[in-house]
Amino acid sequence: MFKRMSDEEIMAQCSELGIKCKLYDDKAMLSTQMGEWYFNRNSKENIKLYHNNYCRATNRVSNANKFNNCYHKQKKTFSTQAAVINYIYKHDRLDKKIKESKMERLFNKVEQSKKR
User: What is the pLDDT of residue 22?
Assistant: First the structure.
């Protein structure tokens, strides 16, 4: 049976995981260092999650209409709202590690080229 999380439950879980959150009647908007997310709070099953990556050049989210053309739907669906929040946390931790390792490789290449 579907149980919509209370505002307090969502805010507490997000706070514990370092995720910023704004709640509306029907949507939860979550943001991390890596991007922005939203899901419909009234979905009773197969909760769909939408994601907007930060732009690489400006480190800002696209200024397009937030609920239409700048978000893409994740392939995975979720059975609970808590599972959505946990997925965002794990996804962005992994994405951050990948980007940090790419930056480290880039810096290493620059340092190697200086030594030549």
Answer: 96
Q: Which two tokens stand for residue 11?
A: 């805010």
| Residue 109: CB atoms within 10 Å | 10
Asked if 78 and 7 count as a contact pair (C-beta separation under 8 A), the reply is no
Q: Which amino acid is at 111?
A: E
Q: Cα separation of 80 and 3, whole Å?
A: 8
Runs of H (alpha helix) within 1-116: 7-17, 81-115
pLDDT tens-digit readout, 9-36? 999 999 999 999 999 989 999 998 888 9
Under 8 Å between Cβ of 30 and 14: yes
Of 59-63, 80-84, 101-105, least confident by mean pLDDT is: 59-63
Residues in the chain: 116
Whether 33 and 92 have beta carbons less than 8 Å apart is answered as yes
Q: Kindly report the pTM of this predicted structure.
A: 0.68
Place of tokens 């937030």: 66
CA separation for the pair 61, 67 (Å, rounded): 13
